[in-house]
From TrEMBL:
<dbReference type="InterPro" id="IPR050766">
    <property type="entry name" value="Bact_Lucif_Oxidored"/>
</dbReference>
<dbReference type="InterPro" id="IPR011251">
    <property type="entry name" value="Luciferase-like_dom"/>
</dbReference>
<dbReference type="InterPro" id="IPR019922">
    <property type="entry name" value="Lucif-like_OxRdatse_MSMEG_4141"/>
</dbReference>
<dbReference type="Pfam" id="PF00296">
    <property type="entry name" value="Bac_luciferase"/>
</dbReference>
<feature type="domain" description="Luciferase-like">
    <location>
        <begin position="20"/>
        <end position="114"/>
    </location>
</feature>
<dbReference type="InterPro" id="IPR036661">
    <property type="entry name" value="Luciferase-like_sf"/>
</dbReference>
<protein>
    <submittedName>
        <fullName>TIGR03620 family F420-dependent LLM class oxidoreductase</fullName>
    </submittedName>
</protein>
Amino acid sequence: MRLELGRYGVWLRARAVDADLARAVERLGYGTLWLGGVNGADLEDPESALAATDSLVVATGIVNIWSADAARTARSYQRLAERFPNRFQLGVGIGHPERTDVYASPYDTTVAYLDALAEHGVPTNRTVLAALGPRVLRLAGTRTAGAHPYLTTPAHTAGAREVLGAAPLLAPEQKVVVDTDPERARAIGRDYLAPYLALSNYTRMLRTLGFTDADFADGGSDALVDQLVLHGDAATVAAGLAAHLEAGADHVAIQPLTEPARSLAALAPLLGL
């Protein structure tokens, strides 16, 4: 049986999360805290967040397959699962070809990693896979609890649900800026998006949604930024988050790009938390 993540969670860089922020996420009613940038196999950051909270599910978004040995990751998973039963979700993914010196088939490497995790006792339903394209989405649906797409839109969510079918978990990440000044919010979004728009796996996926090279220039066109970084007042942002659920997501991982505690507090009542 897979973990219950809740309809909405929070995605934050692991280095930005301390005990107080983890407790605030739990107190506000978000079901899961996703920690990004967990590249090592020891899983110390999720362990600290779990220790600081009582019932919050903590997930990795993601452990990088290139940089975290599968056997060590599995041992760390077992440690956390024993200490915090039914509260840890292991998210793994291949990362980006531009950010590794290792050459191997990303798909075959992912399959081998999932094989190793299973061999070392990590339950399939306690693993999720970063997935964008159809082939890896299908792998996520058959070899893990489901998919955790990053930097996507409700249109991608709808397509991902079609590929996955009804049963597997679909938990996209969505960036937000709770700010009613559109130019200021877009500037924040562009600063954050610029490195991602130089990565081929994201631009390839975004092209399937109708975006072009012109949309990727200078940190992103208004049309691209407005979809990848929801902005406006809390009600407008909440409606954009709900669009992922309407498109077929089971859970939405919200990444506030500014003032996370304030932004999450403003959104929580509008999300039914």
